[in-house]
Structures are given as C-alpha cells and as structure tokens.
Amino acid sequence: MMTGMKANFVATIVLVVAAQAWTGPGRAGDEVPAAEAPANDMAHSPDNLIPRDDWKRRIDDARKRAEQARRDWRINAPLRLVVPDPPEKIATQRVLGDDTLQSGDIVSTDKGFFLFRGRSGADGQTPDLVPIAPR
Length: 135
Fold this sequence. Notes:
It contains four helices and three strands, in the order H-H-H-H-E-E-E. By secondary structure, it is an alpha+beta fold. Among the domains are: about 35 residues; about 45 residues, no CATH class. A three-stranded antiparallel β-sheet has the order 1-2-3, with helices on one face.
C-alpha cells in the first residue's frame, strides 16, 4: 500500500514540473498573439537610430554636465553648511520660553543674570527681565 502512495506522489510531482516547464503554444500551429510576444524595447528606441559619432558626442556632453554639476556642488558647499546655534543661545531661548517661571526667579542667559518679574507685551508672552548687577 505504501508503494502505491509513493508512486502516486512521484507521478503528481512529475506532472506539476512538466506543466510548469511547458511554455510553448497550446497546439501545433498556434501563433502567439502580439500582446504576449516578448517586447523588444531596443527595436523602437530612437537611440539605436543615431550614428555612433553622435552617440559618443551625447555621452561626452553628459559627462561634461556631470562634471559641471560636481564643480557647482563644491563651490556652493559653504552655503549648504548648517552652523548650529551655540549652547548658550539655546539655553537662553529655553529659559525665555519657560512657562514655569514665577515672579522673583533668577535666570541665567547668554547676556548675564536677570530677575524675572513676569510676562508682559500684547500677547502676554514676552518675559519681563531686570538685569542683576554683579557684586
């Protein structure tokens, strides 16, 4: 009984492999429709219709444009350089934007020590700071 099951299994595998390997038309004499025909992109490319000298000229022009783009990139590098704010400025901005400050708090900024007296201005968000004279 086991031998018959093995034979059926092997026969099934052979049929599956044969079905997947079959790539020809369904019957002898059938033609492959144009939609199923392999596309040859090079046959319709305008680049294969130009003379070799023109093709070489296009390649040289493209190389020159690439080299010019690299030069421009190097020349404009300083303009792309992002300089981070110094830590003192970042700390000052953080302190001035701190909404937990209370009147009488002393804050340290990049300009020195200040006494926080509250918030003022039309929006009520501008900190009112008084400089503290060093002793």
